[in-house]
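Sorry to interrupt, but I need a hand with the structure work. Could you write out one complete protein record for me, on any chain you like? Could you add the entry underneath, on a fresh line?
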Amino acid sequence: MPAILAIPAGMIVGSFATVVAHRVPRHQSFVGGRSACPHCATTVAAYDNVPVLSWLMLRGRCRDCGARISARYPLTELGMAILFAATVLILGTDDPGELALGLVLCALLVIVTLTDLERRVIPNSLLLAGAVIAVAIVAVSDPGSFAERGIAAVAAGGVLFLIALAYPRGMGMGDVKLVALLGLYLGRAVAPAMVIGFAAGAAVGIGLMARHGAGARKRAIPFAPFLALGGVVGLWFGDAIVDWYLGTFFHG
């Protein structure tokens, strides 16, 4: 039942995530102001703002001017619903604090992915808000884990900072801050999250080079989506991966 309830909740949060991802990089408030069509500026009615369903009913077009509405809106809403439901199923509901951290992290990673894909930016205000929320949840639910989470944030951010210094064209400070934030949310599970993120990014890079040759080196690839993928895997399976690694190679 919690996983079923997480589906509509995820759709609603996904709809809100698209608003945040659109407005924050443009320095617009996402708290006030109704959604409006970017083409005709007509305010979107409440019945046309129902996640997924409204887009399907309108066949992906504005009711007033007929302009196309990007499919990223329903896809984001569906994606968030899947992430929320899977997070509830995998983490369970026995530890409300851990579950709250997981759901917030999913929402943050979706927003960061959208902003990096569209604008090649990871807003500092978004990362700061995510850090404040994480600290607040941990302070209430598991204050004893602050040391581990702090060490993970500093270590992960430090490693990526050194990489950014060595290869500034391939890594930005936004990625460094995002990895530090992952450390705050995931603790030790940030290690497999980083490995998976780098592996996914490398695989895509190799694929582009195989297809476009040397010209692929000039293509700018946003790295946050790969870190987000690693963050989700780390959230769901990171602790199990770390336990397997330690048990396999350091069992003595």
Observations:
- Residues 193 and 230 are 4 Å apart (CA to CA).
- The chain has a mean pLDDT of 89.
- The chain has nine helices and no strands.
